[in-house]
Write a structure and sequence with these properties.
The protein is an alpha+beta fold. Helices cover about 60% and strands about 10% of the residues.
Length: about 70
């Protein structure tokens, strides 16, 4: 799946499109998706809100931002 996303992102960028990804992103898979160079924006909602019930919104957002940073290297 990740190779398909990488290829789609590359093709989209080659056509001059902005690349945004979302739907189904969570704390487990966001790092790999964030590593796709062409991606300009990630749309993440459900997993952050669900986690915030357990750890609070501030920590849930902080943890997600850290996972995305790790993907960007």
């Amino acid at each position: 799946e990740l190779s398909v996303l990488r290829e789609a992102a590359s093709l989209a960028r080659d056509q001059g499109l902005h690349v945004h990804m979302g739907h189904g992103l969570n704390y487990t898979n966001v790092q790999a998706v964030a590593s796709i160079e062409e991606v300009e924006e990630l749309n993440i909602g459900h997993s952050i809100v669900a986690r915030s019930v357990l750890v609070g919104m501030e920590r849930a957002v902080r943890d997600m931002k850290e996972a995305m940073r790790q993907g960007r290297g």
